[in-house]
């Protein structure tokens, strides 16, 4: 079944390819392309001989394409026509078929209902003129034989018949055979016992040469079956790689999110917090970066102290907001004790820029940015997602702040009860008792127990 399908597909492809070559034109500068790409692809068979006699032929680049077999009686044009201008000339005897042709007086001619194939020899006029003249007389197809190489000097090989003029009026197919095959075919007709309309003839069949493609069909089937699993595997791998790339993209942090994370600079005696984009590092000696960038790059302690005094003075005039106080208060106890980058395992040096992740872990800025943008959006230490807006330590600090300890008072709010009037009012305070008052109460309770 597969063999039949592939054979049908090959035939359809051959027909389409052949039609396309015909549609590209019929000028002489394109004939070499026709011959190079296609060559001989027709077989001319004398079917009334046993065994059948085959001749290789080449189709013309004009006229109808031979898609299926064409059968008919082969009749030379000079068997019933002569030149209208000079009936006694040698051209009529040579069977050149050049216009204008007229019927022989008192001779026979094929009937209109007969299916016959005209046989003409090359020479004296163009191929398209020969085929057009045979079509005028009702031929179903045309066979053009080569000329004598000893007389014309042309090599006895298959050629491509083309038209230098418009040939859209040609509706019948035509094919070319070599001179030796033409001579053999003419001799077969001369000694034939078959005749139609009183003219000697032989039964001919023109067939497209698809036999070679049919011979290759099992090989094509094997190649398809051999490479189909590999092709499917390749497609599967490409789909898997595409999905993996999409998954990896989802695992990375967007660059704009990473750039908005706070960063700090180690100045030797503390951290300096900064937000926003990181200023570029100057590369030229003559560059004069602004004061803050110079301080950040050099890690100058003196500049840091001066800047700290300026900030303290500004803070005295402009009290800090509650947001800044909350941000400082939620830092875990180990935040200020971080002195080593967990990625490169190196201690922080003066002027090092570090990135502070929402989980409060600190890393060298360039290293952690590379990790977050190109690898994972998780903290290398605690695996916290840096793209989440909530601070994971905010709830932890609140829970720790509200957790009871030994210094937490037993009553968390003031209670006032009236027992019989205003003289029996009991008031409790949320202020825990001092250690001194607690010891006096404990000693008094012991003395009272001893007296009892």
UniProtKB/TrEMBL annotation:
Enzyme Commission identifier(s): 2.3.2.27
Subcellular location: Membrane
GO molecular function: ligase activity; ubiquitin protein ligase activity; zinc ion binding
Cited SMART domains: RING
Top-level lineage group: Eukaryota
Region (Disordered): 306-329, 404-440
Compositional bias ranges of the Low complexity kind: 425-439
Entry keywords, A to Z: Membrane, Metal-binding, Transmembrane, Transmembrane helix, Zinc, Zinc-finger
Residue ranges of every copy of the RING-type domain listed in the record: 341-383
Feature: compositional bias, Basic and acidic residues: 306-316
Cellular component per GO, a single term: membrane
Compositional bias per record (Polar residues), positions renumbered to this chain: 404-420
The name this protein goes by in its record: RING-type E3 ubiquitin transferase
